[in-house]
Amino acid sequence: MAATDTWTAAQEPGLPFGCLPGAPDRSLLALEQAIRPLTTVLSLMNVGAHPDDELSALLAMASRGLGVRTISVIATRGEGGQNLIGPERDRLLGLLRTRELEEASRLLGVRLRFLGDTRGDPIYDFGFSRSPEETLQHWGAEHTLRRLVRVIREERPDVVVTSFRDEYGQHGHHRAITRLTLQAARIAGDPAAFPEQLSGGLGPWTVKKVYVPANPAMEAGDVYLSTEPGEPTVVIDLGRFDEALGLSYAQLGEASRRLHRSQGMGRRPAPGPQLFYAELVHATGQLLRARAAERSLFDGLAWTVGDLAGGLPAGSEAVSDRLTRIHRAIEAIVRAFPDRSRVLEATHRALAEVRALLGWLDAPREAHCPAGDARAFEARLPGELAADLRFRLKVKEGQLARLSAVAALLVAELESSAYELTPGDAVTLRLRAYNGGQRTLRNVRLELQLPAGWSSCPAGGQEEPQPVGPHQVAERAFRVHAPPGGPYFDPYHLPEIRGVVHYELDGEEGGAAPVSLPVELPRPLALLPEVSVAFDPDRHLFNLQPVTAGGSPPALSVDVLVRHHGRTPREVAVRLNVERGDARGAPQPAPSNQWTGGWDVEPDVARVGLEGQDVRRLTFMLRPRPGLVAGRWALRASVAPGTEPARAGASTGEGTTVQAVEYPHVGRTHLLSPAVASVQVFAWQVAPVRVGYVTGGFDSVPDHLRRMGVSVRLLSPQELRAGDLGAYDTIVVGLYAYGARDDLRAANRRLLDYVQAGGHLVVQLHRPQDGWDPERTPPYRLEIGRPSFRWRVTDETAPVEILEPAHPLFRWPNAIGPSDWDGWVKERGLYFPMSWAPEFVPLVATGDPGHDVLKGGMLFARFGKGSYLYTSLSWHYQLDHLVPGAFRMMANMVSFPAHRPTA
């Protein structure tokens, strides 16, 4: 775990707990926050590329401050980012970042949409990109544009704001999504664009205004190049305090950003102006002509329901009159605050008015009275305007229903007896509705909504509608049965399981406007396989060096964890299948017996009995056949009932691995994937050295060193402070460790003394903000490059030149050649040094096509009797992905002291 502060909502001064949707808090602040959205009919959409790209302070102002319906659209799940709090990488990291963004959006009251909505979606965070063209080649330009146009048509925003500009110096993902947003906003209103979407009630939608940020140096100077600002057409002070919230929108925005803990986001802005500059780049009609006089993002747009009434064409007076009545009913709600009873009554009157107009609009023409009004309305109100009006009224209907529950002090909760279950299992769900107010709620009815395949039956409690008086509770239990055949839990498409509390307000006024309040579970029900299997570990190395030396390689031991998620004892048979894998480890279709030099697996079948929540470890031995050559192999685990005959070709079911992601700030969720492991076969040598490792918690390099046969010990704070560092031949400092560990910074002088006395210190890449002092952290001056856009190599195939081919680091114990730089993934390296003292010798040079060649990937220096190596190449990522050359080079780096006498 990273040594970062654990932040909770309770530590944020003035944080409005009542702003949390679904929270039991029904304070006056929560009531006021529920009223604000009624005062406007506008929607704002913010579009970014990754979780944490959202303009948090702007969203806080729009949603919590102005009550504007606010939508955050994010392209990817952030799979290619860093993880500052745990071991999750790739898909697991994407799941963690998704949950972080969901909680951040919940805090801000923002509706969240993702463009990459499946695990295998091409809209994927594949790592840093220098250009939008490269990004769109990966994502698919038309595929992503189609998704974005659909989201715009579904959400119908009036104003769209991109998180970034499409300018050189920005992440290619940022530029790509900005470019597509401008295009999508222009064509979403065109019926000829993706016409297959225009069915089932979805129609074209014309975005009224599109903005891009115009701030100079939008991101900090150590992240991206400073670019010329755009021409701002509006300036917004997000540092202004909100009187009800008791904090500024910048502070509330940063409170949400601190939920992006895996990315180390969030700061504590001091009170004072926090200016946001926006440039209007697209608008309809006169809105564009008025850009020079703009004072807000919403200038020129209908703000209230009353504004809608005044903007209808002639001949639609019947609709205009009804809209005016709704507007006046909303004004009555605002005036009634903070009197809950008056707010509640006014809310139900407004709700009745909204539903009356919706019913009038949806009724057939002959049902309207007088008929002339209806014919005039249908003749003169354009179809898109009619659809727009229906949409905004449906939004108001939902807002009024939520306000009713807050004003009534209705606290509804749905709980499950268990949140993880297997096919065919049953759990008990309890729906409770507590009336904490002073008004009786009548015809209270509790029901459960389930997706297809799930079923329920009553299990006790209130079944018939009945009144619930002040301080009384209605409760109902349901016995819910999971479908016997799945589908299994998908964290990106959760099962729609919710409770609904139906009620009416007592008394004559407003009683005819019933409310249906949806109630969510505190965490989703996860349908898991009865038995899951997981390789431990799921990445293996097999050394061909004994074969090269004329010996016989030992067998490879592979452990499989078999976990029982069900409740019924059972016996299962587990089998391993070995297949050739591609460069990423994915299985190829040909079985091992069709390849020269495959593997024999012992045992052929392993049987195990399971009950309760058993976790059993099975060990298989893989014995190489003659002729085994270097390459990647894939292992698949399959599961069958224990009665399955132990014979080749017996029918088995593909094993599923269940991985849990759980942190206090995001709760618990799961990722299910095929049970597959990789075996990388190649030759390497490593000296018998003792290695001390200083981990920052951000990499798995120690585990990989152990797989190569290296003796590794993690250095504790006490050992760094007072231990015998001379007991280690090599000490390795992990990724970003100087920023994560105060004890490391305090012990830095001891590490330099260790080098001076004859030790060998290897320091992996750090960022400028990671407690790195260019003059004091290394033995000689070494300055990490900023902005990082310039000091990285994102092309994993970029040529690498060895500048000192005679250096021992490239000669012993493994001779490093061109093939050792093949098969790299994601990148060559990042945060390259930009300058260094002459005592440092650059060992390699590499650079992205069309960009400067960087020589700071490996910097070597003698210091006293010892040696110091700083490397900004992404060894940790290559080791995670079993790149042979990275292991061979890492073996040389830690083995260096054993070669030093002859160097």
TrEMBL record:
<feature type="domain" description="Alpha-galactosidase NEW3">
    <location>
        <begin position="422"/>
        <end position="490"/>
    </location>
</feature>
<dbReference type="InterPro" id="IPR018905">
    <property type="entry name" value="A-galactase_NEW3"/>
</dbReference>
<dbReference type="InterPro" id="IPR003737">
    <property type="entry name" value="GlcNAc_PI_deacetylase-related"/>
</dbReference>
<dbReference type="InterPro" id="IPR029062">
    <property type="entry name" value="Class_I_gatase-like"/>
</dbReference>
<protein>
    <submittedName>
        <fullName>PIG-L family deacetylase</fullName>
    </submittedName>
</protein>
<dbReference type="InterPro" id="IPR024078">
    <property type="entry name" value="LmbE-like_dom_sf"/>
</dbReference>
<dbReference type="Pfam" id="PF10633">
    <property type="entry name" value="NPCBM_assoc"/>
</dbReference>
<dbReference type="Pfam" id="PF02585">
    <property type="entry name" value="PIG-L"/>
</dbReference>
